[in-house]
Automatic annotation (TrEMBL):
InterPro entries for the chain: aa-tRNA-synth_I_CS (IPR001412), Gln-tRNA-synth (IPR004514), Gln/Glu-tRNA_Ligase (IPR050132), Gln_tRNA_ligase_bac (IPR022861), Glu/Gln-tRNA-synth (IPR000924), Glu/Gln-tRNA-synth_Ib_cat-dom (IPR020058), Glu/Gln-tRNA-synth_Ib_codon-bd (IPR020059), Glu_tRNA_lig_a-bdl (IPR020061)
Keyword terms of this UniProt record: Aminoacyl-tRNA synthetase, ATP-binding, Cytoplasm, Ligase, Nucleotide-binding, Protein biosynthesis
Places the protein is found: Cytoplasm
Sequence motif 'KMSKS' region, location on chain: 265-269
Entry binding sites for ATP: 32-34, 38-44, 228, 258-259, 266-268
Residue ranges annotated for the tRNA synthetases class I (E and Q) anti-codon binding domain, each copy included: 454-526
Name the record gives this protein: Glutamine--tRNA ligase
Source taxon at top rank: Bacteria
EC id: 6.1.1.18
'HIGH' region (motif): residue ranges: 31-41
Pfam families, per the entry: tRNA-synt_1c, tRNA-synt_1c_C, tRNA-synt_1c_C2
Subunit description: Monomer.
Length: 548
């Protein structure tokens, strides 16, 4: 536990070990397989798996698969891949709430026999209305006083599939006047004729979250059941059920603040809709806050872990600036990424005094702070590309890059001076005629003259075409509306640069290493790359340019 950050949950865990309340800590991460994991889940994963690591305990991965209409094998698979990608491992502790369906059912019969549960024939709507409000107590169901025999018979017939969806539910019999609405006879089972990814059509009834969750914790011997604050009001019900049922252990529930991020919506409902409605290319679209999206975007898992550590674990909800995540990504990549050159929007340069047909190899360092990263050769020739916006024909005062008559340094190469800008019929600059000074090879002038700008460039012949995808925030609104998210989408969230140029070695490299294109940011090869046509995603720019 030495280097890990401390928080109120870790303090509780430490106290429980010190007092010998527990000898081994067991936590769990319990996703419902109804979508891909997002960065909010990463917070919960790092907390649960992190505690298990730090206190030499275990963390279970448990699929909370109690709602078959929304759950799919694709999600089960992606969740496992994403937890591994984040750097965590459940070992052999992989569980499914559906494995407990039989036991949960038997326990429900026990509740009925003890007069702690009854079958209610009211409609969902009637149940909702009669549940009351914070200021108004609920009203008892007319079916609340059924005998145990009658309840048992109806419940067994619900299980046998005799009734249509929604016809009846099993409810706990607690207190319709409770100040806590969760204790006003909550639903334990509902009828659902649906195909479950693991149990097929075996079941026609499915347990509610509240009924399945705590009992799954107890069956697995979870010591600390950590969930987000929305479940604080469910804790009395969690405890009521543990108290009434013959469970093998009594876990305790603790709540922490969920992660909220500016410019981001972390709700599976919204993320599912973004995918379904085609606002993004899929769950792994690099603009998505999903783990799969972050991965495809080139975000290193260590940066996500660092981010989660920095934000900490608190008891009050707050919104974290997405700039904090971006900072962690940049900080990590600055250390680990090799430097290369790419020209995103090429403008042709002809060096008029450089001999036609000649080329030469220049030395370029791979990482300015890490000599061990070595160097590489880059080709210089008569025809080059520079970035379009590194040239201005009529520059304002503070523009120090290339313009007619000014001299600049081409990184690792020579000083060049612009003599003339050639335009097309539309008046756009399409080519620059320049001269170079052979005495400035390597980037310094023997006569000591200075230039105010150093620019990246590529040889026209010795560079390769590439498509570069530049991403901005998916939402233009710092606090997008979950209800009406489409209105808050950023129309400029994806910019495609189809005519970029990259160093040949970069194009040939099939690894998924993130590289820094000098002066442009961090980039990673995308899975859409084809032979001869690599595609790169911009992971992140070099500095925080996003308007806040
Ligand atoms: P959503 O509300 O988007 O549907 P969920 O909470 O239902 O997500 P689950 O699959 O049930 O998703 O979540 C698994 C675990 O991840 C839960 O313990 C949940 O509390 C936690 N979790 C979900 N979202 C966040 C978040 N934004 N921050 C921290 N933990 C989260
Ligand atoms: Mg959920
Ligand atoms: Mg939820």
């Amino acid at each position: 536990a030495a280097e890990a950050g401390r928080d109120f949950i870790r303090d509780i865990v430490q106290a429980d070990l010190d007092s010998k309340r527990h000898n081994v800590i067991v936590t769990r991460f319990p996703p419902e397989p109804n979508g891909y994991l997002h960065i909010g889940h990463a917070k919960s994963i790092a907390l649960n798996f992190g505690i298990a690591q730090e206190f030499a305990g275990r963390c279970h991965l448990r699929f909370d698969d109690t709602n078959p209409t929304k759950e799919e094998q694709e999600y089960i698979d992606s969740i496992q891949a994403d937890v591994h990608w984040l750097g965590y491992d459940w070992g052999t502790d992989l569980f499914y709430a559906s494995d407990y369906f039989e036991r949960l059912y038997d326990w429900a019969e026990g509740l009925i026999k003890a007069d702690h549960a009854y079958v209610d024939d009211q409609s969902q709507e009637e149940i909702r209305v009669k549940r009351g409000t914070l200021t108004e107590p609920g009203k008892n169901s007319p079916f609340r006083e059924r005998t145990a025999e009658e309840n048992l018979d109806l419940f067994r017939r619900m299980k046998a599939g005799e009734f249509p969806n929604g016809a009846r539910v099993l409810r706990a019999k607690i207190d319709m006047a409770s100040g806590n609405i969760n204790l006003r006879d909550p639903v334990l089972y509902r009828i659902l004729h649906a195909d479950h990814p693991r149990t097929g059509t075996k079941w026609s009834i499915y347990p509610s979250y509240d009924y399945a969750h705590g009992q799954s914790d107890a069956i697995e011997g979870i010591t600390h059941s950590i969930c987000t604050l929305e479940f604080e009001d469910h804790r009395p019900l969690y405890e009521w059920l543990l108290d009434k049922l013959p469970v093998p252990s009594k876990p305790r529930q603790y709540e922490f603040a969920r992660l909220n991020l500016t410019y981001t919506l972390l709700s599976k409902r919204v993320l599912t809709q973004l995918v379904r409605d085609g606002h993004v290319s899929g769950w792994d679209d690099p603009r998505m806050p999903t783990i799969a999206g972050l991965k495809r975007r080139g975000v290193p898992p260590a940066a996500v872990r660092e981010f989660v550590k920095r934000i900490g674990v608190a008891k009050a909800n707050s919104v974290v600036d997405v700039g904090m995540l971006e900072f962690c990504i940049r900080e990590h990549l600055n250390k680990t990424s090799q430097r290369r050159m790419a020209v995103l929007r090429p403008l042709k340069v002809v060096i008029e005094n450089y001999p036609e047909g000649q080329t030469e190899e220049l030395e370029a360092v791979n990482h300015p702070d890490d000599p061990a990263a070595g160097s590489r050769k880059i080709s210089f020739g008569r025809e080059l590309y520079i970035e379009q916006d590194d040239f201005m024909e009529n520059p304002p005062k503070k523009f120090f890059r290339l313009s007619p008559g000014t001299e600049v340094r081409l990184r690792y190469a020579y000083f060049i001076k612009c003599r003339e800008a050639i335009k097309n019929a539309a008046g756009e600059v399409v080519e620059l005629r320049c001269t170079y000074d052979p005495a400035t090879k390597g980037g310094n002038a023997p006569d000591g003259r200075k230039v105010k700008a150093t620019m990246h460039w590529l040889s026209a012949a010795q560079s390769v075409p590439a498509e570069i995808r530049v991403y901005n925030q998916l939402f233009a609104n710092p606090s997008p509306s979950a209800a009406n998210f489409a209105a808050d989408l950023n129309p400029q969230s994806l910019e495609i640069l189809p005519d970029a140029r990259v160093e040949p070695a970069v194009a040939a490299d099939n690894s998924n290493e993130v590289i820094q294109f000098e002066r442009q940011g961090y980039f990673v090869r995308d899975k859409d790359s084809a032979p001869g046509k690599p595609v790169f995603n911009r992971t992140i720019g070099l500095r925080d340019t996003f308007a806040k």
